[in-house]
Amino acid sequence: MIQNNTIKIALFYLISISFILLNLWLVIKKDTLAGFALPFLLGLLLLAVFSFDKLIYLTVFFAPLSQELSRLMPWLSFNMYLPTEPILFGILLLFFIKVLQERQFNREIILHPVSIAIYINLFWILVTSFTSSMPVVSFKYLLVRIWFVVAFYLLTAKIFSDGKKQEQYVWLYLSSFLIVILYAISRHWGYGLLNKQAAHYVVVPFYNDHTSYGAALAIYLPFVTLFSFGRAYSKKIRRYSMIVLGILVTAFILSYSRAAWVSMIIAILVWGVIRLRIRFKHIALVATAFLFFTYSFQDEIVGYLERNSDESSSNLLEHFSSITNISSDASNLERLNRWNCATKMFKERPFWGYGPGTYMFQYAKYQLKKDRTIISTNAGDGGNAHSEYLGPLAESGVLGLITFLILIVTVIYTGIHARIRTSDKRLKGILMAAIVGLITYYIHGFLNNFLDTDKLSVPFWGFTAMIVAIDLYSRKEKQTADKNPA
User: Fold this and answer.
1) How large a percentage of the chain has pLDDT more than 90?
2) Where is pLDDT greater, at 333 or 39?
């Protein structure tokens, strides 16, 4: 025992002295403090080896706080989010090493219909990366999408496979997101809370603008509402959650994100449809009638929209109504400009597209002078196609859009049926919150696109993983109940 203690003490001093000497050498000879990152890197390595799930939790926690490398080192020719994307790349490598070594993964997750829909979408992104007008850009886009899927869908679904830890995943993001929210509100306070323009930059440097910030708030609001009023949670958790809910609602209003507001309204309607168990044929009938009405009176509708002169402003009602202003609102007109470019790109290459991730580099030549606005740019630095649907259409052709739509439909179908099947009230609540949260993003996706960032990929793929894991868990529960009837 004494000998073992002596060895441990000797190792401690050896490592400590080596660390001090290494840092002195780096500071004196190389004029850098890079050595102080070694304990952090060592800690990540230990997490990866001994506790894979903790590494994912760490990434989820840091997502709202992550910074773009271009902000820290603007002279570099490439960009990534720090510290999340280097960690995600490490997770991807370790995942493939582990799978090759053990030659197995959770078979039920791998073969789930949602997983298959994801593979089909990824496969088409791979194919169109080979045919891309800018292959390097497209393969980088594919790599980023893969590490998001591996970490926040495949591995996260495995973490959730026992029907637990969903709340932990949500609170990890929220705990650091609250830091960003309080930071943004405090900055907004200085400019005046009713200052709409301030909403665009008070979230910088954590979020690029108020639209991605609003989307993140919208996707998490259903969960915080569940934690505030769900009977499956203790009074202490509900009280704390109500405070957080008040903060998120305040931030949601102050985000001045019209797309987020609209997405939440539609998500609430979907929640009502699911709660009332309205049959799909009735929904399809209403949707068909709406589309027929819109098509029949399209000229009148466009004329009405063109007469709307409400500009985006600090007045909340005027700001909301300005979402239909397509005659003078610069933000709306620029969005139409980007959509027109995407449509023209699709018509140019309807099957293969220009290549995943290439829209921002290719759309400029499709801008017409009459479509350009005061915020138009040829550099693509003002966002991409402003649509999760038109973006893939322009970049990966018609199958790029179809495969993404198949994924969305499969997730919603799985979530609703899993909710009907499970008898666990807690899991029912989580499924509803995940479905409604994802619906906010599916709707928001008509107006913006953020799935190339860690900020929205964490909830998008994480909530999808929750639905899949609970679906599999509820199936096992039902099989057990059928075998052992009371």
Assistant:
1) 55
2) 333
What mean pLDDT, rounded, does the chain reach?
Answer: 85
Does 98 have pLDDT greater than 70? yes
Rounded distance between C-alpha atoms, residue 190 and residue 200, angstroms = 14
Domain ranges of the chain: 109-282+380-477
* Contact call for residues 392 and 359 (beta carbons, < 8 A): no
